[in-house]
Amino acid sequence: xxxxxxxxxxxxxxxxxxxxxxxxxxxxxxxxxxxxxxxxxxxxxxxxxxxxxxxxxxxxxxxxxxxxxxxxxxxxxxxxxxxxxxx
Length: 87
Prior knowledge:
Low-confidence stretches: none
Number of strands: 6
Strand order of the largest sheet: 2-3-1-6
CATH class: Alpha Beta
Strand content: 25-35%
């Protein structure tokens, strides 16, 4: 049985040029306590346009998701899709 990590969010619709440090910087500037970010890559080593971000706790992850419902998050001119990770 796989245990879901409640402090992990999924961010989709990232540009091909998005970096893990860019995602971390974006969320940190908005006062979120980011522990790590991992961009999902395909077999050719190119971004799939999505990332998993680990936050300090489940409340912090919920706060990011709730905030993005009221004030959409964008990066590189693209509106990002943010939700609690299903993994």
